[in-house]
Amino acid sequence: MALIEWSSNLSVGVSEMDDQHKKLIKMINDLHEAMKTGKGKEITAKIVADLINYTHTHFSAEEKYMAQFKYPDIDKQKAAHAAFVKKISDIQKSVNAGQLVTMDVMKFLNSWLTEHIIGMDKKYTSFFNGGGLK
Questions:
Q1: Is position 2 within any domain?
Q2: Which of 62, 103, 108, 128 could serve as 133's disulfide partner, Cβ 3.0–4.6 Å?
Q3: CATH number at residue 54
């Protein structure tokens, strides 16, 4: 069973961002599955590295549109994105040091992603849609 299930509740109404959020959810679910099934730390390390790389791609895209459409909460978004990247980087360091990914980490990823999408990202929908993104 997936840790995070995509639902319309998570949609921000912008297909590009929704597709990117779905990919992030898949990566978190893949990490969760690897952890649950006791897969090697190499697989976990690769998934965490992929997650870091993809968050940079996703956050850059969001922030580009926020700047383009003059989104008023861009600074709050950038700060949240930076905090998430730091946390994932800390997780990567732990994994690379041989520590296992714990359920606490999975709970953090689950709550951060869903709370960030619902609590912050949904607020940019009208700005992005008004700028022509759907």
A1: no
A2: 128
A3: 1.20.120.50
Residue 134: C-alpha distances to residues 83, 97, 103, 127 (Å)? 27, 42, 35, 10
How far apart, in whole angstroms, are the C-alpha atoms of residue 38 and residue 33? 8
Domain with 22, as residue range(s), is 14-130
Q: Could you report the per-residue pLDDT of 19-66, keeping only the tens digit for each?
A: 999 999 998 898 888 878 877 667 788 888 998 999 999 999 999 999
In this predicted structure, what is the pLDDT of residue 124? 93
Contact 74, 66 (CB under 8 A): yes
How many domains is the chain partitioned into structurally?
1
1 in any annotated domain: no
